[in-house]
Amino acid sequence: MADDTGQMTIDVVLSDKNPLVLSGLKQLLTDDERFTLVATVSDGKQFLEAVERMPFDVGVIGWVMPFCDGRGVLERMRDKPDAPRIVVYTGSADPYVSREVMTLGGAGFCSKSEPPEVLLDTIASVAGGRMVFPFVDVRGLDRHPLHHLTSRERELLAALSSGNTNAELAKQFDISVNTVKFHLRNLYDKLSVRNRAQAVALHAASQNNH
């Protein structure tokens, strides 16, 4: 899209479950003449609908979102021709998330702990055809005893280790209790453990090794 001076700008759609985050990002992009904010949405399903309705250059999405999370969005867009480039903007400190975003075809990753200017520069770089990811020592990741878990399973395991009940996990991740139980069964199978206590002990041992 062209601005008032006729210069082309980068069209962006934002998706985040937190309205305060959306409000802050909206102001951030509006104040930067490089960008045109096309739309803001609060979940992955709405973001995918926006992709179908309108053309834009870059989508900035959260990783944990209702209805369809960041992983689900990336999976659905992998084979879509002329899809916008995706930057995942998340507060997750899990080093596996950025690697998973890259594997799923995302173009960039930015942590919410970074200064706002880092996100803006990431969006601009991605729009220019580059990929932007933090450095990850993949050798260390491969040796991690939990390396074969999905990001959601690792998030559940970390929350489980904090003593959260299944109901509390369901509320935290905006999923049903039955879905929590399904994920936990898969988690136990992958870790070759039989119960919550063994899974938590394995997580604690892994943390002590890092």
Structure characterization notes:
By secondary structure, the chain is α/β, with parallel strands linked by helices. The chain has two domains: 10-127, Rossmann fold, CATH 3.40.50; 145-205, Arc Repressor Mutant, subunit A. The chain has helices at residues 19-30, 44-53, 70-77, 95-103, 116-127, 138-143, 151-161, 166-173, 177-191, 196-208, and strands at 10-15, 35-41, 58-61, 85-90, 108-111. The longest helix is centred in the last third of the chain and has 15 residues, at 177-191.
Task: Summarize, please.
This protein is α/β, with parallel strands linked by helices and 210 residues long. Helix content is 50%, strand content 13%. The protein has a 5-stranded parallel sheet, sandwiched between helices.
Largest sheet: 5 strands, parallel
Helix content: 40-55%
Structural class: alpha/beta
Task: Determine the mean pLDDT.
Answer: 85
> Class of the largest domain, according to the CATH hierarchy?
Alpha Beta
CATH topology of the largest domain: Rossmann fold
Q: Into which percentage range does the β-strand content fall?
A: 5-15%
Distance between the termini: 47 Å
Identify the CATH homologous superfamily of the largest domain.
Response regulator
Extended strand count: 5
Q: Would you identify the CATH architecture of the largest domain?
A: 3-Layer(aba) Sandwich
How would you spell out the order of helices and strands? Answer: EHEHEHEHEHHHHHH
How many helices? The count is 10
Low-confidence stretches are none
Give the number of domains: 2
Strand order of the largest sheet: 2-1-3-4-5
